[in-house]
Specification:
By secondary structure, the protein is mainly α. Helices cover 78% and strands 0% of the residues. It has one domain. It has 5 helices and no strands.
């Protein structure tokens, strides 16, 4: 199970590092096409979310690799669970807007993706707080 948790941690770290760096480095206008939810959100909040995602990605892998403050790994996973709850809520909210079917389908896919990432982060939190702690 330890190997599976490591695989999930590395996968989550790669996903959130990529998404977070995109939010941190790209202007809001460039993010509108792949991430429609950024329209009503101030650019500072988009950048803050990107910073949270990058820090969580670092927290998933760096503490156990160094052996320093390893409790940060499950805490980072819990933080990602919270971020994904917010992501699901945003996608479900946007799904209710009167729009075309393609937009609704995209929002459903976004909510499902967030739900899968939430479950993976919850598994890491459970494993690293519990039976497979460092």
């Amino acid at each position: 199970m330890n190997v599976a948790l490591w695989a999930i941690q590395i996968l989550l770290a790669a996903i959130f590092a990529g998404a977070g760096l995109a939010k941190l480095t790209q202007p809001k206008e460039k993010l509108r096409d792949p991430m429609r939810w950024v329209d009503p959100v101030p650019p500072s909040q988009v950048k803050a979310l990107g910073a949270v995602e990058v820090l969580a990605a670092i927290g998933l892998v760096l503490p156990p690799l160094t052996g320093i403050a390893t409790v940060l790994t499950p805490l980072a996973a819990v933080g990602l669970v919270i971020v994904m709850v917010g992501g699901i809520m945003v996608h479900l909210r946007d799904m209710k807007k009167p729009d075309n079917q393609d937009r609704r389908r995209m929002e459903i896919q976004g909510a499902v993706t967030c739900a899968v990432l939430l479950v993976l982060a919850a598994v890491v939190a459970w494993g690293r707080f519990g039976p497979y702690a460092f």
